[in-house]
Design goal:
This is DUF4440 domain-containing protein. Keywords: Signal. It comes from Allosphingosinicella flava. The protein has 276 residues and is an alpha+beta fold. The protein folds into two domains: 125 residues, Nuclear Transport Factor 2, Chain: A (Roll); 113 residues, Nuclear Transport Factor 2, Chain: A (Roll). The strands form three sheets. Strands 3, 4, 5, 6, 7 and 8 form a six-stranded mixed β-sheet that branches. A six-stranded mixed β-sheet has the order 10-9-14-13-12-11. Strand 4 and strand 5 form a beta hairpin. Helix 2 runs antiparallel to helix 3. The longest helix is centred in the middle third of the chain and has 21 residues. The chain is globular and about 45 Å long. The relative contact order is 0.15.
Length: 276
């Protein structure tokens, strides 16, 4: 009887449908925190090399560079803990292979800014970042926090990655042209958009973002250099060079956008446009 019972239980277990663990941004947040913690132990150059992906990129004044080659040009400074940073917003693809975080950064408690990082899951299961950008200085100190807001994971049916990437490239190009036609357009921005680089502090939410976008968008131009999408085709990123005028002076700098595919199309979740 006992053997029959065990066999029956096993059969029921095998026949029961498997329930997958829900996809959350926790692995991306954990990777960012591990990266930040590692820099408290080792110099910045070493930490950035260890956590960057082999195919990662840096958008520089001299064009797009392989990030590991770019980091190799940094001076060999003995500066563990030079920067402290912590995520306050994160997101991940429904396929669990692409994500992002953003939040404040502190330079020895004397200067503050914001960072924006895109993470990609590697074949060995680890997470490495593929692009990392920062902003200009914040005007005031920011206290570290463990609280991280997460963008809800997409529930749309997956889309073939090649088709999704093609669609995203077109959308990014259309957004660049839309600035000149209709400055501050909400068409491409998610209701919970976070803008970085436009103001000393992040601008959160579409209502706050629209007048800020309109102020810079009179002659803003963006030229995409690359990016990628998740295996599910629901989360993607684009990067390149932006140009605009500010107080009568011509400005150029890198831009980085993270997008989520929604019923109405691709929408920007986070955008950074910051002068070199």
């Amino acid at each position: 009887m006992r053997l029959w019972t065990l066999g029956a239980v096993a059969a029921l277990a095998l026949g029961a449908p498997a329930t997958a663990d829900p996809v959350t941004a926790d692995p991306v947040v954990a990777a960012e925190r591990a990266f930040a913690a590692r820099h408290q132990e080792v110099p910045m150059k070493q930490a950035f090399q260890e956590f960057s992906a082999a195919d990662g990129v840096a958008v520089t004044r001299d064009g797009v560079k392989n990030v590991k080659d770019f980091i190799a040009t940094w001076p060999d400074a003995n500066n563990p803990g030079f920067i402290q940073w912590w995520p306050t917003l994160a997101g991940i693809a429904q396929s669990g292979d692409l994500g992002f975080t953003t939040g404040p950064a502190s330079f020895g408690g004397k200067r503050y800014s914001d960072y924006f990082t895109v993470w990609k899951k590697q074949p060995d299961g680890s997470w490495k970042w593929v692009i990392d950008q920062g902003t200009g200085p914040r005007p005031a100190a920011v206290a570290p926090t463990q609280n991280v807001a997460a963008v809800p994971v997409s529930t749309l049916p997956p889309m073939e990655a090649g088709a999704a990437w093609s669609d995203l490239q077109k959308t990014d190009g259309n957004l660049g042209r839309a600035f000149a036609v209709h400055p501050g357009t909400a068409t491409y921005y998610a209701p919970e958009i976070r803008l970085l680089g436009y103001r000393p502090e992040p601008v959160d939410g579409i209502q706050a973002a629209l007048p800020v976008l309109a102020g810079r968008a009179r002659d803003l131009k963006t030229s995409m250099e690359g990016g990628g999408v998740s295996a599910a085709g629901d989360l993607g990123y684009t990067y390149g060079i932006a140009s605009w005028s500010e107080n009568g002076a011509a400005k150029t700098g890198p831009y980085l956008r993270v997008w989520q595919r929604r019923p109405q199309g691709w929408m920007v979740l986070v955008e950074n446009v910051n002068p070199f």
